[in-house]
Automatic annotation (TrEMBL):
GO cellular component: cytoplasm; plasma membrane
Domain of life: Eukaryota
Residue intervals of the DUF5600 domain: 1-76
GO BP terms in the entry: endocytosis; endosomal transport
Annotated protein name in UniProt: EPS15 homology domain 1
Pfam family, one: DUF5600
Entry-linked PANTHER family: AT21416P (PTHR11216:SF31), EH DOMAIN (PTHR11216)
Annotated InterPro entries: DUF5600
Length: 85
């Protein structure tokens, strides 16, 4: 039971410091602030979840998504006609 209490406290700390966590992620990954959700709304949403039930991040999967967004989708969009031309 003490381990569960520690996890709950850690989760609450993260939720309480969500703005700082967003800032860390923003700096680490060079993301614009506008890419992040409203902090208060996200706090409410996160309060309904148990963090230790989330799947762990897989760096390979993150890289695959980054490559898709950076290369695959732009290449795909080139094949569509621009309606503004």
């Amino acid at each position: 039971m003490p381990a569960m209490m520690g996890k709950a406290k850690a989760q609450q700390r993260l939720i309480d410091n969500l703005e700082d966590e967003f800032g860390k992620v923003q700096r680490e990954h060079h993301l614009p602030a506008g890419d992040f959700p409203n902090v208060e709304h996200f706090r409410e949403v996160l309060s309904g979840y148990t963090f230790d039930k989330f799947e762990k991040l897989k760096p390979k999967m993150i890289q695959a998504v980054d490559d898709m967004l950076g290369y695959d989708i732009p290449d795909l969009l080139k094949s569509f006609r621009n309606p503004y031309d």
